[in-house]
Amino acid sequence: RVKSEGRNGWCFFRPEMDEQLQRRLEMEQDLKRALADNQFQLYFQPLLDLGSHEITSFEALLRWHHPVRGMVSPAEFIPVAEESGLIGPLGEWVLKTACNAAANWPQPWRIAVNISPLQFRHKSLPVLVKKALKASGLPASRLELEITESVLLENEKQNLSILTQIREQGVRIAMDDFGTGYSSLSYLRAFPFDKIKIDQSFVRDLPHDRDALSIIRAITDMAQSLGVRITAEGVETPAQMDALKDLGCHEAQGYLIGRPAPGIDAYCPVAKTVAA
Ligand code: C2E
Ligand code: MG
Ligand code: MG
Ligand code: MG
């Protein structure tokens, strides 16, 4: 018997649960090998400044090429990596690889790296960041870390101090998936975020949904007065992009501007001409 959300809290172990558990255990085993076997790769997705219409940065998005299952989504394997403790070494690999890549870019574009809340528990994150910058030669001002509010939900004091140590190096800190948590707003007072990224669930309903419009307007108004930059995620249509610009968003990210890709060559017209 296992605990479940059932009426009396208990139910009999069903074969499909067995399968789920099996799949998870297998994934954990496979993940352990994946790092040593070079099965991970970073994709990069551009962010566009809505004022200047120039690319400002790229977000690094992790991809896992499973030898049998093919491409596995980070939404599926990041939670397993977090539960099994593998997020430590995996997150370190992402940080190093992202900094090394950005240090070689032909433009001073920034790189944004997603950091799991659990990475705040391992080793010293500020030291890992410092080492990744030093080894790659990437200036701190060109690195941005994306965190979610759950980082401040637990160990708030300790994690705020870690964030402060990182920011003091000159690294920017962005709050990701803004608006999906319970206390997003209160955390804007607790820490001087450089950027907030409005979750794609709000952008999806633009430009017609009144609620989405007023929520985004409230976020941009508040961000304006706090001096925080606003990025909108998941921008897929020109109408959404126009609405976001009208609402005062500074930056946009989404399939309309560019899908995540293994390289940034498509955004380097000069390099392409030279190579041709
Ligand atoms: P996120 O950080 O919020 O990243 C944005 C996600 O939205 C990415 O999904 C991206 O591919 C997707 N996306 C971008 N533009 C559009 C669009 O126009 N429409 C739609 N429908 N989706 C769009 P992805 O790559 O599957 O990553 C999912 C999540 O996995 C990320 O959400 C992030 O939380 C996590 N993740 C990805 N890479 C890493 C990593 O290196 N470390 C950690 N800790 N988490 C990561
Ligand atoms: Mg992100
Ligand atoms: Mg997001
Ligand atoms: Mg997300």
UniProtKB/TrEMBL annotation:
Looking at the record, the residues that make up the EAL domain are 24-274
Q: Which domain of life is it from?
A: Bacteria
Task: Kindly provide the name given to this protein in its UniProt entry.
Answer: Diguanylate cyclase
Recorded source organism is Asticcacaulis endophyticus
